[in-house]
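Async update (no meeting this week)

Hi team, since we skipped the sync, here's where things stand on the single-chain job. The sequence we agreed to prioritize is pasted below, unchanged from the tracker. I ran it this morning and attached the output directly underneath so nobody has to dig for it. Comments welcome in thread, and please keep replies under the output.
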Amino acid sequence: MMIDLTSGTSQIPMIKILKLSTSEKNKSCFTLFIMDKLYTVPFKIRSYEVDHNERSTLSSICNYFQEAAGIHAHHLNFDISQLHAKGLTWVLYKMHVIVDQRPKRWEDIDITTWPTAGDGLRAFRDYEMKSKNGEILARAVSQWMVLDLKTKRPVRTPAEISKMGLTNRSHAVEPNKKQLETVTENKSVLITKVNDNDLDMNNHVNNVRYIDWMTGYLPNSLVDGKQCQEMEIQYLSESVKGDEIYLSYEQKADTIQQTLFKNSDRKAIATSLSKWQ
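Output:
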């Protein structure tokens, strides 16, 4: 059901309230509030998304960001399934997340997301997580590419997507367009093997799973009693079911640099810089 609330004057922007049922059997709905090109979705933090301190994990925060982005993209007719029909798909190239305060179990929060101007090959999207009193809890910027499913190569962002960028709105986090360094692979250790639960709609490892691995397999001597407050991650290569995943890390001043490799050839699949407090 969609309700359009419009004004006869040009001073008040159009607001839409979009209610979508998750399925015919499950009548629970979420509400998407739309003002101009800002999209806000309310969520409640679930018990299985928090750590032992009853605070949201970094990966659950990223999942909320991407869920809101997916709803928004579907509304604009260019989500992943809609791109698949054109022989294309989305791939995440980079994401930079800063957590100012982790929401608590069962806390009600709002996720606001908006597209920002890209550069031809990359489409930028920004995010804010806010408490119900308007306090910013976390923020992020992501860089996406459109991939041709046949050639497996990036293509220029379609014009109908590029024109959705909000050139007059600043980034939630300023994007870093430089490549991140990788850690030497000869220090890597085997941490897991990819299974069906790790895969996304492209049949590749879900991008948030990389964040899970990077935050979950560091030694206690580095992170005991600390939380990851900031992470910038760059995705380098796909990973599929059956791949063996290796992790290598180095501590540099107040940051930890990590790289994930796959299989015996130790091909780098993702690299990151993170800060812990």
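Quick observations from my side:
Helices lie at 58-75, 80-84, 159-162, 207-216, 220-223.
Residues 50 and 219 are 20 Å apart (CA to CA).
Reply here if anything looks off.
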